[in-house]
TrEMBL record:
It is a multi-pass membrane protein. It holds the Pfam family Cyt_bd_oxida_I. The lineage of its organism: Bacteria, Pseudomonadati, Pseudomonadota, Alphaproteobacteria, Rhodobacterales. It comes from the Bacteria. It comes from Celeribacter ethanolicus. It is found in: Cell inner membrane. This is Cytochrome d terminal oxidase subunit 1. GO terms for cellular component: cytochrome complex; plasma membrane. Keywords: Cell inner membrane, Cell membrane, Electron transport, Heme, Iron, Membrane, Metal-binding, Transmembrane, Transmembrane helix, Transport. Signal peptide: none annotated.
Amino acid sequence: MEFGLVELSRLQFAMTAMYHFLFVPLTLGLSIIVAIMETVYVMTGRPIWRQMTKFWATLFGINFVLGVATGITMEFQFGMNWSYYSHYVGDIFGAPLAIEGLMAFFMEATFVGLMFFGWDKMSKVAHMIVTWLVAIGSNFSALWILIANGWMQNPVGAEFNPDSMRMEMTNFFDVVFNEVAQAKFVHTVSAGYVTASVFVLGVSSWYLLKGRHTELARRSIAIAAAFGLASAFSVVILGDESGYNATHTQKMKLAAIEGMWETQEAPASFTLVGIPDREARETHYAIHIPYAMGLIGTRSLTDQIPGVDQLVAEANEKIRSGIIAYDALMTIREQRDATPAEVRATFEEHSADLGFAMLLKRYVDDPRQATDEQIAMAADDTVPGVGPLFWAFRLMVALGFSFIAVMLYFFYRASFRGMKFPRWALRLGVIIIPTPWIAAELGWFVAEFGRQPWTVDGVLPTALSASHLSITDLLITLAGFVIFYTVLFIIEMGLMIKYIKKGPYIDVAETDEWMKRHEARLSADDATLKPAE
């Protein structure tokens, strides 16, 4: 297969995925925040909380609709641009996607209409339940998508069938409860919660700077700061869990992220900063934190974390083992039921390494004809781009800790300083609105780029997964997707800015009347207390 074709296919899918992921985190987090606000309204009966719920739900609805539009086109690409991948692992990958559509997406689509148009047709409690079901449906969508993606990172519960020449599922529950998938799910949804919290905090800060909708803004900041603080801590803790999983599921990705070229004595140090040099197999000007990586990656003081060079040597051996499996597979393919039992036994013994032999397809049509030099080149291909991964991960982590600091400060001001915020802090709240999206995109990049050269880690190389399309076809569709997604993004931004400027325009009279009565009660209470002072 033409290498440029694969790279263009990857570029197209990366572009559509990154565009789609601009909408996903806000949908995940804002659905929960809206449900929390409506719960407070049901508990207190105060109209201000209903007004807040309807306002933030409007922004959620805009983001939700456009997120669905960008997500649908992504799934078509599996059949269009990645047909061999769909054929090879469709039995496993297709199941979570189908369940996501049936169980989660239809749940969202059913209840989201009731959430927006059922305010005057249901009781307060019934409407609150509907809002929570929308939030749960949104998160269920993420669960099944990440189960599918987690299997690509750690392909458990499946095995290759030499008779059908495809991967087949052997245990559905192993796929569902895959440790990588579950860690990715909780980490991703927590990141979405942080994204929504920063968004709510930033918009509310803008209102306070403008002196508009101050009661709604202060209460929204209080909710966003508390929810965001818990979520920001969760992101860091659960991200650490993902790193621990990578120690025994994706060792090369972890070594690349750390710029760890040679295996260190346990416990390994953590490289805070440095300049990775792939040619020299060295990270220049590295600043290390002793023992930190060993403790994070292995939870012990004695277990080693293998470096890139050791893993390349192991890949070399797996490629040679995979060649044996490939040779046996070709015999099985030719002789079918007449295949000798010893050939099938040989295949079973080496089948786990078959994917490594497929890495040679980039250099030679028949892996059995590969030279030692070609095997060495294929083994070196298992090293992803160390420099981009190294810095993307560190920037993502730095942003994660900054969210903790910001949310902690706003939580303190909201809880112990009467919800009074300095203007510099409000300006900061507005400025940081884009940062959680940057962190989320970096996280996606680390997860997916770090898996290269595999589509399914250790099983199917990316170079073999793409469809046999022409370069012209890809360029035309790539241009079409860029135009389509850019138009949707402009529509999203235009609608969001329009409704943020418009502010909470629903239930204004009732809320204002309640606020006047509330302020009168507070004044009366103050007057009663003054003589006692």
